[in-house]
Amino acid sequence: xxxxxxxxxxxxxxxxxxxxxxxxxxxxxxxxxxxxxxxxxxxxxxxxxxxxxxxxxxxxxxxxxxxxxxxxxxxxxxxxxxxxxxxxxxxxxxxxxxxxxxxxxxxxxxxxxxxxxxxxxxxxxxxxxxxxxxxxxxxxxxxxxxxxxxxxxxxxxxxxxxxxxxxxxxxxxxxxxxxxxxxxxxxxxxxxxxxxxxxxxxxxxxxxxxxxxxxxxxxxxxxxxxxxxxxxxxxxxxxxxxxxxxxxxxxxxxxxxxxxx
Amino acid sequence: xxxxxxxxxxxxxxxxxxxxxxxxxxxxxxxxxxxxxxxxxxxxxxxxxxxxxxxxxxxxxxxxxxxxxxxxxxxxxxxxxxxxxxxxxxxxxxxxxxxxxxxxxxxxxxxxxxxxxxxxxxxxxxxxxxxxxxxxxxxxxxxxxxxxxxxxxxxxxxxxxxxxxxxxxxxxxxxxxxxxxxxxxxxxxxxxxxxxxxxxxxxxxxxxxxxxxxxxxxxxxxxxxxxxxxxxxxxxxxxxxxxxxxxxxxxxxxxxxxxxxxxxxxxxxxxxxxxxxx
Lengths: 261, 278
Ligand SMILES: Nc1ncnc2c1ncn2[C@@H]1O[C@H](COP(=O)(O)OP(=O)(O)O)[C@@H](O)[C@H]1O
Ligand SMILES: [Mg+2]
Description:
The complex is a heterodimer of chains A (261) and B (278).
Chain A: E1 14-24, E2 28-38, E3 42-46, H1 53-61, E4 68-73, E5 85-88, H2 100-104, H3 106-110, H4 115-128, H5 144-157, E6 162-166, H6 174-191, E7 194-198, H7 202-208, E8 211-216, E9 221-227, H8 242-260
Parallel strand pairs in A: 3-7, 3-8, 5-6, 6-7
Antiparallel strand pairs in A: 1-2, 1-4, 8-9
Helix pairs in contact in A: 4-5, 7-8
Chain B: H1 2-44, H2 54-63, H3 65-97, H4 101-116, H5 119-130, H6 134-158, H7 162-170, H8 175-213, H9 223-232, H10 236-265
The complex binds adenosine-5'-diphosphate (ADP) and magnesium ion.
């Protein structure tokens, strides 16, 4: 397991391709984005706030169209590729009138998966994220960490191959966040997702990623695209190694440059 | 977990005892008020057609109970039908309003009109068109109940968290799924805000309507109609009985809506509080 490289040859197929992508709202937000994400990559996006990180995820998922350039996901337009993706938002984004179980099954329900199959899958996932004991509770009865785990369970229920995560752990305390990071890596090794992860924490990005894209602002452009040269198998104690520290320092410097660029 | 359970149990018992005390106190004050009223009437020889004693009012309620109950039922049914019709129509209009900002801009002035034109001003017109009687009163109730339902339901339908919409889109949800599984569910708490307001004015509306358009057949009508009749006949004691019945009707509506709201929302809505699990 530990010897398995993260970017094995059979994974090296582009899953996401951005070619000359620009996005305008009332002003130009993103300009000239060229990058591709290979199957099995864990790419984090860092950048000053308001530089367009969330917008990148919305472009990948087709929630907002690009003004120019092309975006392909699995060789398709983003909208047509939605079945293969799950989006995890910064807020847990739960339906307050649904129980934990019914929330976890929402995606499957919308995709008209029959009830029995749905329940079976949802129960297994609630077990996985440690929420079985509150399956009948309502979201307002859950702590922040539990809500986030529910939101993740819901995203996983539809068997995504591509996970889009927008600062999913930003609202959690550091200890919970670290634990969730470790759980996320464990699941990822098991499920072989491709992940695009937006965060403003350099340490989190370094701990999780195989690659980090740093954006500059006004308009957002790719300032740096850096592979993370850390071992593929990562455990909590990685955070205390000098290699990890060096990596965090280097990325922080790049981020600072991007801010002042 | 254990400790907080105990705290809740104690808090609960304390809360019940406190509420009971408040209830007993207010009942005592009310009884004292009635007693004082009774004594003043007896000592001061006030003529009963100016102000009847509480005992006399109780007597007349007993004597004329069938007529009183009939008036109560007529007004209750009229107010309920008007209210339910306004809920159905109001939700329908809100669904149209929720389609686009454009339809809201175009149609909203009419709701404002509905809300601002005093109902008594258009009552003669209604009587002219549909004739006096239950139909006119129901229509009057319907009209004044409509605006709060439309306004609040529209608000609930359009104020859906953008990310929830995105979530639905990510799963390729149909328009129908977004409407029924998201927008309408999201609108239920605000719909209840509207219903609460409209339930209050439904009773007022029905009684006011009956004052003007009460009955097409003499001697048989709702509370408003009987109030006019009793006052013309100087049956002040019966007038008081009708006032008591009107208040009771208002209370009943309030409690029914309160109960329905609790029933549909208490499990998940923030307005009800339960301890956190974990
Ligand atoms: N729907 C929208 N309409 C107009 N402007 C938007 C919209 N969404 C985002 N923006 C603007 O685009 C810029 C980038 O937003 P976002 O991608 O959320 O930034 P980040 O996630 O990096 O903080 C911000 O200036 C924001 O105000
Ligand atoms: Mg953002």
